[in-house]
Amino acid sequence: MSNYIPTIGIEVHCELKTNTKIFSNSVNGYGQMANSLTNVIDLGYPGTLPTLNQEVLNLAIKAALILNCKIRRQMHFDRKNYFYPDNPKNYQITQAETPIGYDGYVEITVNGKKKKIEIEEMHIEEDTCKSTHRGEKTLLDFNRAGVPLIEIVTKPCMESGEEAKLYLEKLKELLFYSDVSDCKMEEGSMRADANVSIRKNIDDEYGTKAEIKNIGSISNVKLSIEKEIERQSKIYDNGETFLPQTRRFDDKLNDTVLMRVKETGNDYRYFPEPDIPYVILTDEQIAEVRKTIPMLPDERREKYLSLGINEKITEKLVGNRSLSDYLNNLLDKKLDFKTAANLLLGDISFYLNKNELEITDTKLTPTRFIELVDNMSNKTLTSKNLKDILDTIMESDKTIKEIVKETGIENITDDNAIKEIVQKVISENPDSVTDYKAGKDRAIKYLMGQVMKESKGSANPAMAMDILKEELNK
Amino acid sequence: MKYLDKTIEEIHNALKTKEIKPIDLVEEAFERIEKNKDLNAYITLNKEEALKKAKSLEEKEVGDNLLFGLPIAVKDNIVTKDLKTTCASHILDNFIPIYNATVVEKLEQNDMIIIGKTNMDEFAMGSSSRTSYFGAPKNPWNKEKISGGSSGGSATTIAARDVLFALGTDTGGSIRQPASYTGIVGMKPTYGRVSRYGLIAFASSLDQIGPMTRNVYENALLLNAIVGHDDKDLTSANKEKEDFTRLINKDISGMKIALPSYFMSDIVTEEIRNEVEKAKKVLEENGATVDIIDMKYLDKAVTLYQIIAMGEASSNLARFDGIRYGFSVENPKNIDDLYLETRKIGFGKEVKRRIMVGSYLLSGENAKIYYNKALSIRDDMKKEFDKVFADYDLIIGPTTTTTAYNLTDPMDDPSKSFMDDVLVIPVNMAGLPGLSLPIGFGKSHMPIGLHIIGNSFEEAKIYQLASFLEKELNLDLDSRKGDNNV
Q1: Torsion of CA B193, B198, B200, B202, to 10 degrees
Q2: What's the DSSP call for residue A60?
Q3: Three-class secondary structure of residue B236 per DSSP
Q4: Does domain B3-255+390-485 have CATH number 3.90.1300.10?
């Protein structure tokens, strides 16, 4: 097989996380009884008119900002006319002429190098209803009809399935993080189409395009692109050609399958939607939306690494938005962030998972958390101690100090008390003392063990070691 | 008992003093409708529910609302909950809506009683109501003649004096032209004045609901009841509440009125021009000035209308596919067959013609060549009107180029039918309010209407002029006597 240069563009549809639908006040929900979330507007009843959900505009502005898009200040909606049973009005309200966002980008890292994936445009539209084919019959569920979508279209700027995968992962992370969308590909709240063509030389025109529709997972996007490149390469290698076409990925065959050969230019008879007046976005509105954007994942990564948190913990933390947010609230505090991150992802995560709670549902206020971290950090509390009292920490309002006192696991951090124990151990083990003085390392470990035993495990180990050394060297 | 021939105040007082009850008015209306059955003004009568509603109003205080307990006819493209709404089309001849149009809610709030759904051109596409699946209504002045369209049924029932009030809709003259042909008062309000929610769309950027009545005062009263901002219609205007009767009987001296020369050109018959001239004189004698002016773009209106209205209609009517409501063919072979056969059988000839032309106009590059171009010329036309209204209070002209013609006249020249509306269409293009007022009669005593156009949201000023002329001319507009004259 010869080498070709692949060119890939990706179109993503994302359902916006709004309370209600885009053009009616029906609830925007998933997994409900079929046709229970519908009204006359969603069903395209005669005489009904669309309203416009402001929440949709705000989320779309947010998405455009996150994707580094320019935002159009004056825009309108258009009708895309086509007959299909899942399309209740037989036209879809979309933005063909004036997409809300354009000229944006998403940055990915491919083989250690940064690359900007350019976004051609991003527009708002309504989702269709869901059709299920049962033998001869087709069942229609209009719960999805009128759910708000944004469609994000990249330029043909990717060169491999891997790049497409990295782009989609990044996109998903961004939109999910900023509460724009659930981005659940398995529930269809995020859907991807890939346009794939190949050419021999970089100076050649783009090759014939195949569009792979509605791919069900990010890994399948990568796989289907790779399979498609392979298929097209074989055709060209054989000196053959093919027509522009629409394909789908079949997970059983693990390959793309032809759906239809594209006819010359679909004619959707677009025209401006007369039922929705022009929408004007003001700088104030955009500024308001900008305020609602949380710190984005890449910025968090940079921050955590700079605080000395290792890469593995950083990734885990970024992957858990609520814990990451929790930590971010403390960024202006003086804190051992390494210990804090370890605590959050270790014992605290374990507790939260076990009890199916969010950290904000517990009584671990930032003040108490800081106290806890300080206690761990200065070794007042050992991790064994912590395991014993964690439930109490998470479920009561008491200070960590009070809890420690009540449960009697208080570390002996009193210099004199430890000194007494150390002196006792030294006087009872003259042989080991001699060994130590003769330079035998093993001896101090034994003596230390005796100190801990004598204190019933409650001496602060670091302090005990310091005092032990001090006493031995006297 | 002839309460429905009395003035609105007399009826109201009779209700207030319990001399009559709303049910008496409803029964009288149905007696008249029954007697005028051959006029074919109605598609569906709402007798049982209307009587029930009238009964229920007996429990209620009559109050000061002049519209309380009065029967009203509603054009059959306005959806009425639980009452069949057909758009005069086979494709909706079994359609019983599950919700009310906003205007219908407003009629309810005003304690009016819906008496039935009036005949019209199929989906309001036509100007003689002859495209109705249920046959054309007849003109009460002469049953050989058309009542005009598309609100022909509403015009007919008012002209026949079945009821005092009717709602019509106007996309390219469909209230004013039939009002002119039948000698009644018809107002198309400013675009956005009345909510379109529940009006089955023909051309969304032009459609507007309006009142059709036997006189100017009652027209303004009904407009008072149906206007207002509606959250369900993004194109509805947010305006302060006002009383449209407030300038009625006010002096018109000093009013500046424009009469575009195009409206008095030879596209209009001489007898109509003469009546307009007479009205002009009356106005001038009473202190108004009437200037003949030249206006650009008026002659382009029909072409623009055809492009915009048909383009929008082709999309608006796409939802009638036999899947969710309305007529549906049985045992289709596949989904395409369901679409094709349902729409082939369900729609009439004129509707299909307009859908096809509209689809063509929006197709591929045509949208830019035709539709977008038409929208931009439409803006220019609006600006031309703005220029006139900078200097004038109102614009007048004839409503129609001829009086009502014969029901049997050929229908095979579609562009001729648009010419019926050549004088009224510019008003829809500019979104302005316009009213047709009877000002005289032509040969064989067919009514002639004066078209009064106002600036946006200046309906009250139109009523001021119309009521003045109405009083001065003092015409006998009762078609039942007119009928006897023929």
Answers
A1: 20
A2: H
A3: coil
A4: yes
Q: What DSSP state is assigned to residue B349? A: H
Q: Which amino acid is at A399?
A: T
Interface test with B, best of A38, A81, A90 (most B CBs within 10 A): A90
Q: Which of A201, A193, A206 is nearest to A7 (CA)?
A: A206
Place of tokens 């180990």: A461
Helices (H), A103-206: 161-177
Cβ proximity of B311 and B362 under 8 Å = yes
A-B Cβ pairs (cutoff 8 Å, strict): 95
**Which residue in A has a C-alpha nearest to residue B231's C-alpha?**
A51
Domains in chain A, CATH or no CATH each = 5-284 (no CATH), 295-407 (no CATH), 415-472 (1.10.10.410)
Q: DSSP letter for A360, please.
A: G
Chain A interface with B: residues with Cβ < 8 Å: 40, 43-52, 79, 81, 83, 85, 88-91, 138, 140, 265, 267, 269-272, 274-277
Mean pLDDT for B191-196 is 98
pLDDT over threshold 70, residue A412? no
Query: Is the predicted ipTM greater than 0.90, yes or no?
Result: yes
B321 touches chain A (CB under 8 A): yes
pLDDT of B302-351, one tens digit each?
Answer: 999 999 999 999 999 999 999 999 999 999 999 999 999 999 999 999 99
* Mean predicted lDDT score pLDDT of chain A: 92
- Catalytic, out of B127, B128, B129, B174: B174
Cβ-based contacts of A90 with chain B (< 8 Å): 318-319, 321
Our answer to whether residue B150 is catalytic in this structure is yes
At A411, is the pLDDT very low, low, confident or very high (cuts 50, 70, 90)?
low
What's the mean per-residue pLDDT of chain B?
96
Burial class (CB in 10 A: 0-12, 13-18, 19+), B325: buried
**Closest among B312, B415, B324 to B367, alpha carbons compared:** B312
**Residue A133 host element (H or E):** strand A130-134
Helices (H), A378-440: 383-395, 400-407, 415-428, 430-437
Q: pLDDT per residue over B373-431, tens digit each?
A: 999 999 999 999 999 999 999 999 999 999 999 999 988 777 777 778 999 999 999 99
Q: Which residues of A fall within a CB distance of 8 Å from B318?
A: 81, 83, 89-91
DSSP assignment letter at B5: G
Asked if B233 and B449 count as a contact pair (C-beta separation under 8 A), the reply is no
Q: So where are chain B's domains? A: 3-255+390-485
Q: Does B356 touch chain A (CB under 8 A)?
A: no
Would you say the C-alpha torsion B125, B131, B137, B143 has a positive or negative sign? positive
Lowest mean pLDDT among A191-200, A256-265, A393-402, B271-280: A256-265
Distance from CA of A259 to the nearest CA of B (A): 18
CA dihedral B210, B214, B220, B223 (to 10 degrees): -30
Chain A residues closer than 8 Å to B204 by CB: 274-275
pLDDT digits (tens, 9 = 90+) for B93-132: 999 999 999 999 999 999 999 999 999 999 999 999 999 9
pTM for the predicted model, two decimal places = 0.90
Contact B175, B194 (CB under 8 A): no
Tens-digit pLDDT profile for residues B216-239: 999 999 999 999 999 999 999 999
Name the token pair of A2: 């010869």
CB contact under 8 Å between A88 and B319, yes or no, is yes
